Each structure stands twice: as structure tokens, then as C-alpha cells.
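Lab notebook page, bench 4
Experiment: in silico fold of construct C2
Operator: M.H.
Input chain length: 232 residues
Purpose: comparison with the prior construct
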Amino acid sequence: MNQITLVIVDDHPLFRQGIVDTLSLEPNLRVIGQSSHGEDGLELIRSLAPEIAIVDVNLPGMNGQQITHELGAEKAPTRVILLTAYDDMEQALHAAIAGASAYCSKDIQPADLLEVIHVVSQDKFVMGGQIMTALELQTWIARQIEASRRSYSEPGNPYHPLSDREMEVLNCVVGGMSNKEIAALLGISHQTVKNHITSILRKFNVEDRTQAVVYALKRGWVKLHQDDRLQE
């Protein structure tokens, strides 16, 4: 029997151990690593390349969405299931755009978590309690963005506070590009890219690049690119 390999990243020892204990009861699942810190968790996932990583959204260091985005930008084979204590549709949208395969509340029942793991291992997605194919997920993302945009719509031509160069960088971020890829495409230094992204986050008053993408998408300032991670 082929085993599904997993890494667990959560900073609450009892909760993390509870997940490990639950998964250890399943003969076709094998936990090969665990971590309590964002950066350490990312390095662990990179080195072990598990089929699935179960990652808490709120972590010391890098948060779960940042880890997910980094893995996506690197075209890593690991699929990410994000767990959150604060489940809401906007956060689910953040997770989907970051590249997560599933987004679940931390009060999920063990049997339901096992089902999510098996669904994700079959190259499907779980968002908002729905099981979706890659194409269905794209449709769901577009629908969520459109519903949010109606609430945020502004009359006349949309105003945005970014410079032309910052808009170029933002569009690259929307396309899932890493800082290194953006620097190469635009012919600027890696540090300049970081400076532009820091400025974008400050102007949007958001914490990370995924939230910046959602913020801009809602207001119609950018359009979602076709993402290779969502293609079948």
C-alpha cells in the first residue's frame, strides 16, 4: 500500500501531537516530520518533500499563507492544507490564491480531516467546505472576488495609490512570481523588488503579499492570472 507522507507545522504542541496521533492510526498515512515555526517548517517541507503539509495559518516567523506561496513559487510538489482558528470566507480566498489545496477550521473532526487529506492527495481542493477540481476552484475564486468587488466598487476610474513600477511588481506577484523572478523580468535588483513589495504592503495596510493581491483584486486594480498550480 502506498503511503501518503505528511509534515505537520503548528506551534501548539498538544494540538500538533493530536494531529500526529490521529494520523498514525491510519496505515496509509505517515508523518515524516513536524515543526513549530514558520521558517523551520518551510525548510523541513523543502528538505523532506512530503506529499501533503498540514500548516497552521498563524505561526511564529512566516505565516501559513507565506509558506504556501513560497512553495507554489518554487513549484514544490507538496500540497498544503491550511488550518485556522478563525475560519471565514475572505481568509479562505486568501488561502486559495496563495496556492493552498485546502483550508479548514482547527475544530475539524478527525474523520473529516482524514477525508480532506485523501481528497487533496487525489489532486482536488477543499475550500469553503466544498470539494472542487482545479477548474471548479478557479471558478470559485472568480466568484468570490466578484462578490467582494461589488462591496468595494468605487465610481469612475478605479484609483490606486501605487506607482507604475509598483503596479508592475504587483501584477507579477498576482502571477505567482518569486522576488527573484520579478527582478529578472523587470531588470531590477532583488532588493529593489523587496522595497517595492514593502511599499505596496504599507500603502494597502496589509501584512503579506497574498493579502495585497486580494486587496487589489477586490477593487479591480489587477486581474487574476492563470495559475499553473490550479491547472489539471
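Observations: The beta strands are 4-9, 29-35, 52-56, 79-84, 102-105, 125-127, 130-132. The two ends are 25 Å apart (CA to CA).
Next step: discuss at group meeting.
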